[in-house]
Design goal:
Blueprint lengths: L1 H17 L9 E9 L2 E6 L4 H9 L5 E2 L1 E8 L5 E2 L11 E6 L5 E6 L2 H14 L2
Parallel strand pairs: 4-7
Antiparallel strand pairs: 1-2, 1-6, 2-3, 4-5, 6-7
């Protein structure tokens, strides 16, 4: 009986590690186009048709400053240093913004996460 309880406890502890990572609802998907000392070039992928048309008239900002407490995560949810952002150039990423409009968190996204986020956005905006 003690072995059964111990096995069940170990299985319960192992469940969170086998689950996928949780991404915030405020995540904005896009592509990392470039990195420099003052920030990053971030191209959003979830723009609506109206936003794309308005970008023809008024230039939409694509260069965003990075917050002082920036956190960068790779597709395995490991922490990266901000100096390693060049390795993510051209890849699909998800970002969140702080109250000043600076990017405070960056996630490198895998293919399955991209599909899941597209499905979540399709449910929100049918």
């Amino acid at each position: 009986m003690k072995k059964l309880i111990a096995t069940l406890c170990l299985l319960c502890l192992a469940l969170p590690s086998s689950a996928g990572r949780l991404l915030p609802d405020s995540l904005v998907m896009g592509r990392l186009a470039g990195v420099d000392d003052s920030g990053i070039e971030f191209v959003r992928s979830d723009r609506t048709l109206l936003q794309r048309l308005s970008a023809l008239i008024a230039i939409e900002p694509q260069h965003f400053a990075l917050a002082a407490g920036l956190r960068v995560f790779d597709e395995h949810n490991r922490f990266l240093l901000s100096g390693q952002l060049n390795a993510l150039k051209g890849r699909a990423i998800g970002v969140t913004f702080d109250l000043q409009g600076n990017i405070n968190r960056i996630w490198a996204l895998g293919d399955d996460e991209i599909e899941a986020l597209k499905q979540r956005q399709a449910q929100i905006h049918p």
